[in-house]
Design a protein that fits this description.
With 130 residues, the protein is α+β, with helices and mostly antiparallel strands. The strands form three sheets. The chain has a three-stranded antiparallel sheet with strand order 5-6-7, with helices on one face. A two-stranded antiparallel sheet has the order 1-4. Strands 2-3 form a two-stranded antiparallel ribbon.
Length: 130
């Protein structure tokens, strides 16, 4: 029998050995998943918590300017302070190699107070053209 995890791994997948869904068993991975969801969720998208989320996809076709990057950074910091206050020393880095107005590439560096570790996530968003 396998040990239970901290949270279901997204996207959901069936785990025939440990329970109905595959779970995350490492705290750092839970934090990464939760931070990714916070940044990608649009405000108003989460049921019962309309203020939750940064809505990074909403910036895909905005101009690639310092003003827009500052707006993204301030929204990320505001949301982390509100919904993930256990993260400190948050630093946001934009990848300027993507020189287009229809893509966003960022790295978010942070320190998890409870476990005393630094970590980061990288996100690259481009529009899906079908």
């Amino acid at each position: 029998m396998s040990t239970p995890g901290f949270a279901p791994k997204l996207p959901l997948s069936i785990d025939p050995f440990a329970g109905p869904y595959t779970s995350i068993k490492i705290i750092n991975d839970v934090v990464k998943q939760n931070l990714k969801m916070l940044v990608l969720t649009a405000p108003g998208e989460r049921v019962m918590i309309p203020s939750y989320g940064v809505g990074l996809r909403n910036y895909l076709f905005e101009p690639n300017t310092k003003l827009v990057k500052d707006d993204i950074e301030s929204k990320i910091l505001e949301q982390i302070n509100l919904f993930m206050p256990f993260l400190t020393n948050v630093k946001i880095k934009f990848d300027d190699m993507i020189d287009t107005d229809n893509a966003v590439s960022i790295q978010i560096f942070y320190f998890v107070n409870q476990i005393g570790q630094e970590d980061f996530i990288s996100l690259v968003l481009t529009p899906k053209l079908t």
